[in-house]
Fold this protein.
Amino acid sequence: MQEDFHYYATYCAAFLAGYDHGESLKIAYSAQFVDLCTRTLLAKIKGPLSAATTQMQLELMDARTDPVGLQDITRIWSAFHFLPGDLYAGKQKCSKGYLDKYRLICGPNGDLVVKTVELAKGKPLESVGIAMHVLADTWAHANFAGTPSLVINNTNYYFYELFPEGDGYREKQITFVHKKSAPDDLENSVYTNSIYQSNENSIMNLGHGRAGHLPDYSFVRYKYLPMWGEYEELIKDNPSDYLKAFTQMIYAMKFIRGDIPVFKKDTYDLKAVEPHLDRIKDILEKRQLLASDDWKSFGEDLSGQNIEDHVIDKYFSEYTGSSNKDDTFIGRFTRGAIAHKGMVIEAIQRSDNKLAGIVKSKKM
């Protein structure tokens, strides 16, 4: 997902869940900051490097791809962007190495989503935002894994965009290119992706890089033949999935606030969005590179308040100038990130999967 959903849509979900304007802004800022908090950024403001929630392209290009380096990459991407759907999934007639990667495939409504939401309860708003980012990405990034793997994450020529037409869909073959300087061409279904590398553990084969930003668009519907699925056709309906992500965030935040006693899988607060459902669906279905303006307008209509744009360094001076860094936005965010990452690594480790390494200490 992109800033349009992680920041503006998360604000809308938080407000509908019962948070006030200021609280919703903090939750939304934290959710978007997950996509920005790199080791390079943390080094600049002298924050804890272990709290990194993403890696910038230059960091990835310099990353080691030996077992230790791959564990470091997997810890970040599986924890914050590709939360595994089933760490105990079965797969017949395959090696332990392949099974470990297969079990890291991202998907919604897994046990780790429940643990993610439960971990945020009783914690500062920054932790709520982290949890909402992770939850939302389980829908957008489903079927890809947060570890480099050609077998799990590759795409090929059989990749079609689906356009609603009558009672069915019109298909158009997607063209993937590698022009980073050019925006995706939505009219012609031309999308930028990572360069094919036959090395199983190449950084180019991390997450949904081989599908580019395609999974991050709420409007898109597509089908392809994943190798991990025995080349059976898989259809992804993002408008439907993004609506579930949005309504599940509302439900999750009501649980975190204490308005409902238990967070259950596969449960969505459709009642909260009922008065706004047509507008939300229109935003989700609209073909555009970024839906920020539409979500922002919706959020401002909900709260009657101005939603300021996300500025990456908004809380930097507060952190660098404080004698009590724990009592700052960045301090609370980094503590929440470390706690969440530790929880996910421990769960992966407990499933007899060493791809994310081990939890060395509570302060990791």
Observations:
- The radius of gyration is 20 Å.
- The chain has two domains: 3-148+239-350, 153-236.
- The first strand starts at residue 159 and ends at 165.
